[in-house]
Amino acid sequence: MNETENVLVVCPSAVEKIFLSRLETNRIRFHFLNCEFLETTPPRLVNSDEDLLTYCRKAIQYAAQNEIKAVFFGFDVANIVASIVCREMALPGPNVETVFQCYHKYYTRKAINSSLHYHLLIFNVDGKNRSTELPVGFPFPAYVKPACFSYGLLGQVTQNREDLLSACRNMISEYAPWWNMLYPVFDKYLNTEKYGEGILSGVPFIVEEFVQADAVTCDGYVYNGKVKILGIVDTVTDKRGVVDCYMIPSRHGEKIEQIISKTVISGVVPKLGINNSFFSIEFFVMPDDTVQLIEVNCRMSSTFRNLYLKCRGYDLYESALQLAFGKEPSSLDMGKLYPIGARVYLSTYGKGSAGDLLDFTLVDYLIKKEAYSIKLDVTESQSISAKGFHPVPLAEIDIFSITPYEFELCKNYLRNLLLKERRYLPYDVDILLDEDKIQAGEGIIWNIQENKPMWIDYKFQKLMIYSPGEHHTESYTLPVPAYSIAHKKDGEFLLGSPSGLYLWDIESNYTRAIATEYKGAQLSFNDITMDTYGRVYGGTICEDNTGIKQSGALYLIDEKNQVQLLDDSIGYSNGVALSPCGRYLYFQDSVAGRIYAYEIDLDSGTPKSRRVLAQVSFDDGILDGITVDENGRIWSTLWSGGCVFCCDEITGDILHRIFLPVPNITSLTFGGDGKKDLYITTSCQAWPASKEFSTPIFMESSKNSAPLFRIRFSSRP
């Protein structure tokens, strides 16, 4: 390719345009030939004067006029168009007959002599029977689906003949326009007499025995008759049999991989005549360790592009481009490859607007931060209603992990974060601030007098104040390093500092030490809180850049600034809060993963008893900030857990969870009208001590900002 080579991209999707544009050089120029009548992923017909036959003719003409040397395709219908253009223009590419036999699932089974029971049903466009008799003894339950459709959509499990015919008639309205788009192309470019009634204008369905078994997909390509298998991807399903995700590597082991490889190389590829093309072949893995073919696609599986790129070092787009030029694909030097990769589906059986089912605000945030590769399958205003056996896919997310356990944590976290139907109670997430000038939020409180949240950024040692009405932020430089703050009176605050407890007047910047030592030992405060008597409760820590050096403690500093040790059996002191009545103090030990509840003597402020209110696993995250709502319930944040949870103040049972699109949630407070809004701070800074906790890493922190979030509940939590 010494001169500029022109590549025609047929039926391009938005994703293909983005990725292929990145591959364009002074030697390769892509020509995107848009099809106005079709949206590709997910497939949907659009009202247009153009049709598929017209588009095929236009593609052939365009290729001739623009000296096209290769044709790129990534989608089923694009596969059909590409094979026709390549044949007419004598370009390298897939065979038209092969593509048709792969796309029409009935003829796929005929070509490979499938041992499963299957049968072709033909309907008129109006749903009336044309050829619907089943062979005697055809087994039920049976699975019926359109013979020519994409992604296995619209398929249904049926229990008897009447159920089967009813399912087909219900699918006619959506499937018939699709078939009517395809038929003129088949009639023009195929020898229709060769295939019989299945290629006629009637609407074809394929019915086959319903198999309950694990499904896998074998991906690879054929170059000049030589088969190269790139990998085998598992189709992981839930208890209903609905696709949960696609995962590589396969869990089925070397024996099954060898059986599938032999079946592909010696059976499927030669019988269907696949050559100079990618293939994506689906199998059932039966309980007796045999395999049964499900479908054959004479194209790459672009759904798995990131999986093969980051787990196998093959870029399917670049490889398909190499094949289109008649060259054998080669792998890339990716450096680090992940052991586990998966395309995870966020799907729903719910009905209504997509925006009521999926949190588009948080999806946009994750896309903006490039935290995950996310593909939206719907628009926010789109009306959603599941049809048939399969739920509606709202979005697809690629996840890469080191261990299966971390993968499961990440998958569940993302579904809890983005699917609104999973929320314990309805709420909306507002991203109030997301600026690089805030990196380590901590110690948030609500200033009752000014009706504003205020918190500390311990990275830049600033006090941050946010005005909700004006969406304005102001900041003050702290007089001493601090992690926490308490409002004493007008303009005066208490600072919990690594060097002690300080009084600070914001306006004058006057600062005075209140308590810096206890029995000669340095008091290094993390979180503090103050009761209505002016008494301060604070937890101390001892750490440096290498980690935790020794255990912490809980102290009381009374109204006369006298320091009293309350509890020295604390591994690492974190959030501290009081109940609305002041009779109970809640204090978190991050090392123990415990929330302690102390009963307080109101006269002296000292604890009368202590009990473990809640125990949190490190798998969920590390206890950090805490607050109490007006009903007395406890709300806590999880560092490295991407989550806030609410627990009952008596039993410790978890009542609610709120997931956020960052891992390190640091502090929280209620505010706003009636204190119904929950304000939450985060951090993107590393915490050296966190390496001492066995917390799975399933999400990377943003490198340049620590957003301030506001949770608005539809009803009082």
Describe it for me?
- Helices cover 21% and strands 39% of the residues.
- It has 12 helices and 46 strands.
- An 8-stranded antiparallel sheet has the order 15-14-11-12-13-16-20-18, with helices on both faces. It has a 5-stranded antiparallel sheet with strand order 7-6-10-8-9, sandwiched between helices.
- β44 (665-671) and β45 (677-682) form a beta hairpin.
- α3 (76-89) runs antiparallel to α4 (96-103) and α4 crosses α5 (105-112).
- The termini are far apart.
Structural class: alpha+beta
* Lateral strand order in the biggest sheet: 15-14-11-12-13-16-20-18
Average of per-residue pLDDT values: 91
Largest sheet descriptor: 8 strands, antiparallel
The total strand number stands at 46
Percentage of residues in DSSP E strands? 35-45%
Low-confidence spans: pLDDT under 50, at least 5 residues?
none
How many angstroms does the end-to-end distance come to? Answer: 64 Å
Write out the CATH superfamily name of the largest domain: TolB, C-terminal domain
How many domain regions?
Answer: 4
What form results from the Cα inertia axes? elongated
Q: What is the correct CATH architecture of the largest domain? A: 6 Propeller
CATH class of the largest domain: Mainly Beta
Helix amount, in percent?
10-25%
Pfam family, one: SGL
Family: Belongs to the SMP-30/CGR1 family.
Protein name: Sugar lactone lactonase YvrE
Cofactor: Zn(2+)
